Amino acid sequence: MKHILAFLLLVIISFEVSAQIKGEIAGDTLETIIVTAQLREQQVLDIPVTLSTISAQMLENTHTTNLEQLSNFVPGLNIRIQTPHRPSFVIRGLTSDEVSPTAQPRVSVYYNQVPTSRASMAVSELYDMERIEVLKGPQGTLFGRGAQIGAINFITKKPDSSFGGYLSAGTGSFAMKEVEGAANIPVIGDKLFTRVAGIYSYQDGYITNLSGGKLNGKNTIGGRFSARYIPIQNLKIDWVVNYQKDDNPGTAFMSKRYPNAKGEYDIFNYEASLDEGKDFYNKRDVFGSSLDAKYYINDHNYITSITSYYKNSADSRWDGDGTIAPAIDMSELVKANQFMQEFRYNFSPSSRLNGLIGLSYWREDVKQKYWFGPNEQYMVYPLLEMMSQSFPVPMEVPPLVMGDGKSYPMPAIPGALLGSPYDIPLPTNHEEENNSGAVNSAYDIFADATFRIFPKLSLTAGIRGTYETFKTTNESHMIGGTPSTLGSLMGGATRNFFFAEAPYSEVTKDFLSLTYRANLKYDISNHSNVYASYSKGRRPNVVQYNSAGESEVMSAET
């Protein structure tokens, strides 16, 4: 969708007893829910944004520890995790699932006020959380680049002056085991506090690969160290270090068109037939560190500095055709790191006005390697099937996998099919590789404020300017085996099938953009309000190379 300009007229008559905003009512008393969705501490009903907040208590009561479970509690949100580094976020029917180094997401994911939207960094286990905030609609003014259709803000529990902790464990089907715990340890009186937390989650794959091994399982361990230092009364420093390691079995890509090795077509019998057996995997490591310092000028005016560094690597191998046939073997390796520095000044000179101004710098370096190992004596079947109508001589092409679950190679394409007197031999061991990368950076300056015009009527407005630089690199090569026959027949590269051979090249582009928002809110009572909101979101331009190795620039989405 090229344009997403959200105009929302929402009537909120809420007593905050709902699945997504959990309020505890004792008699006629309503619990105060404090959130930071507007980068300042506010009550939920003070925020004229479509916001869902999931509290720590709700996460504990529902034993929610993975992202996909959030879809059960937040209307309009759907999260699916194909692998730990290939999540899909859907808000109001619009999807963000970009994995290319050159593409930016449509949904911003924040972790303790640090952007972790890159697909290979976005997935984390939900343990020892304070709350989760889900904002729907364009949020570019507050959450920056990539918040075209919404934002998700994860806030973990921070250390305090109490001594304590918890430990929980559970088991389930498919040998599921999960252990989670945390300990809060004061170190120096009311000056220094620490907190450690961790989780281990394991489950056998629920898909049996008839060629060997299990698929769609989980083996994850995560840990977090947090420290809070208050050297003087008006200075608070939070340091958080995260680490998560995923060592999962492969993903069960299964075809409904072709049967498994037993000759069965029903994918819901949970039996796949992927030819490489136990050799499929999904591995990922994520490390992150953030330093959040707040200097309080007084109770209502303070300066915030956020410094963060994240890095990760993700490696996976899968069956590209989803059948017993060794047609397409594929793997992907992603390595990424990012740095961010942000400064904000929050102000509230009177009870009628509050807001913030800020500036930030963000930079990421991403490298992605795709490897393809097709056996063209099998891959030829679906291609011939697609081309059969154009053959000089009519031919009924057999399927890639027969009805009995067996697959047979075609050593050569009959020459008569292509009007040639000779049969055309097909290789079994072609290998090719595409290496792409991006160094993306952005400078942002932003401001947002709320002014109470009358006791029950308030106006909120914000604006963000962004200057971006994208440097994109690309190269593709045949790295082993025999040159692709099918690639040359399809009119593409002479030696490769998927990517045209291309030497290393790079291109750099700069862009300047502006996003903004404005809304008007009227308080009907202490527990209900009505507001109108207008906002402009933006997904940045994409500087990329196509399969022919040519650079191109895709327009920004607004």
Automatic annotation (TrEMBL):
Pfam families: Plug (PF07715), TonB_dep_Rec_b-barrel (PF00593). SUPFAM superfamilies: Porins. It is a multi-pass membrane protein. Keywords: Cell outer membrane, Ion transport, Iron, Iron transport, Membrane, Receptor, TonB box, Transmembrane, Transport. Residues 45-150 form the TonB-dependent receptor plug domain. Residues 229-547 form the TonB-dependent receptor-like beta-barrel domain. It is found in: Cell outer membrane. GO terms for cellular component: cell outer membrane. Gene3D superfamilies: TonB-dependent receptor, beta-barrel domain (2.40.170.20). Its main location: membrane. GO terms for biological process: iron ion transport. This is TonB-dependent receptor. It comes from termite gut metagenome.
